[in-house]
Amino acid sequence: MTRNRIVRWVHVSDVADLSSLLQGGELVLTRGAALKRSGRRYLQRLLAAGALGVLVEVEPGNSALPTSVGAAARELGLALVVLHRQIKFVEVTEQVHRRIVAEQFEEVDFARRLHENFTDLSMRRASATDIVDAAADLIDTPVVLEDLSHQALALAAAGQSAAGLLENWERRSRLHAGGGCPDGPEVPWSVTAVGRPPAPWGRLIALGADSESTRITMVLERAAQALVLQRMADKDRTDIEHQVMAGLIDDVRRHRLRGEEEVTARAFALGLRPAPAYTPTVVRARPWAYGTDAVSDHRRNADLLDVVVRTTRAQGHTGLFSVRGPGEVGMVLSLKVPRSGAEQRVLHALGDALRRDTRRTTDAADVLIGVGETGALLSEAIERIDEAAHIAEVAASLPSTGRVIYTASDTHLRGLLTLLRGDPRVQRFAESELRGLLLHDIENNDDCIKVLRGYLDLAHHKTALAARLHLSRPALYAKLRRIEEILHVELAHGETATSLHVALLALDAQTRNPTPGTR
Prior knowledge:
Elements: E1 9-12, E2 26-30, H1 33-49, E3 53-57, H2 67-76, E4 79-83, H3 89-123, H4 128-139, E5 143-147, E6 152-156, H5 162-165, H6 169-177, E7 189-194, E8 202-207, H7 214-235, H8 244-253, H9 260-269, E9 279-286, H10 294-314, E10 318-325, E11 328-334, H11 343-361, E12 366-371, H12 378-383, H13 385-397, E13 405-406, H14 413-419, H15 424-444, H16 448-457, H17 462-469, H18 473-487, H19 494-512
Parallel strand pairs: 1-2, 2-3, 3-4, 12-13
Antiparallel strand pairs: 5-6, 5-8, 7-8, 9-11, 9-12, 10-11
Helix pairs in contact: 1-2, 3-4, 3-7, 4-7, 10-11, 13-14, 14-19, 15-19
């Protein structure tokens, strides 16, 4: 049928054979002489030439079209409009062509605005949230950016309730990825992958948007390109808000200095006290809300750096300090230790002082400190700041225990997966291992993931697991058999159990602590 097909042009002609004059998509206006003589053959030629239909004027006093013409048009899927009063075809063509040209101009203008908006965002190195906001503004539809673990990284609500849009988001997104309609068929989702194929790292989703709309597709694809460029730029961007000491730290980490002598000379000139060993440390404030004003965010980070430097020096220590990111300060300390073996006591005293002063002077409710392995060489300690940052990051993902100081002994496999939680390869691994079970739980309101997690956490101890879950042993055995059927595995197989346990830990790390820098 011709419904919803777009008329590209209007052609006026009484020629019996138009096949050599049409290019496809036309509506033909005619007086009907050829239709009266050989209606089916005329319509077949129009169809072969790509025409969409015919509008025929039957002049008063002339014989009507044969009834077989209407039946032939229906059979061939061509629109047939019969007029029983005389009109000026030139007025019809003028009106139709004016609308077609106007629509084409509107599409060209929209494409121009789309290009200018996203080019400007890329030039300004806009955040992912800004890019998602721009996409939603252009199509007046809520847009969500999610990663491969179905965690919503950014949302532009387009005037709707953000809480309502993100309610049960992970469950709804998994259902859609599995081919379902999470919000019903009347609320379609338009989805575009973000990242270079065949390894995208996220999805852009326009909620309630017609997936067949050319504009929706154009906007989502352009926004996806902008997000890829933003991600690439962020990988190598140096934070210009670092203080003077950050230059030395950065030079060491990038191996731009010639040797240890130059490193220590510059550090001592900046006030670092010589010491037998230097301690890499990262202070992380939490919670640290992401603001909408870059200037105020810069001021808050500067205030945090200020209090860390003042408190550390007040405790008698010296160091090199640098803002690593929102709510995070990296430093290499030369600790003032009264006697050998008292480093831990000194660190805990410093941690308590930093917690106290940070609460007083910033809006952070708490701080935690990751401590890396000390280095006899200053350059070694500086390069281990990343290790301390990893420890602090893992500590932030753990349930709060009231501790301030964390070391490498507090992080194991969970720490590694927390560090790698933003890697699409880790997310794909977790999804591949657990997708079937996650979808089963969502669709059947079941708790197989909970059972599997307990089974692995308790090292396959079924009696202890049955007691923990308040299940009879036959019921637990049935659950475990169901899990094996869904995943097509044997839980007793050591490598299989290890793989599933790692996937669960990766999923937990992503769920507890989404990728930094997103809203």
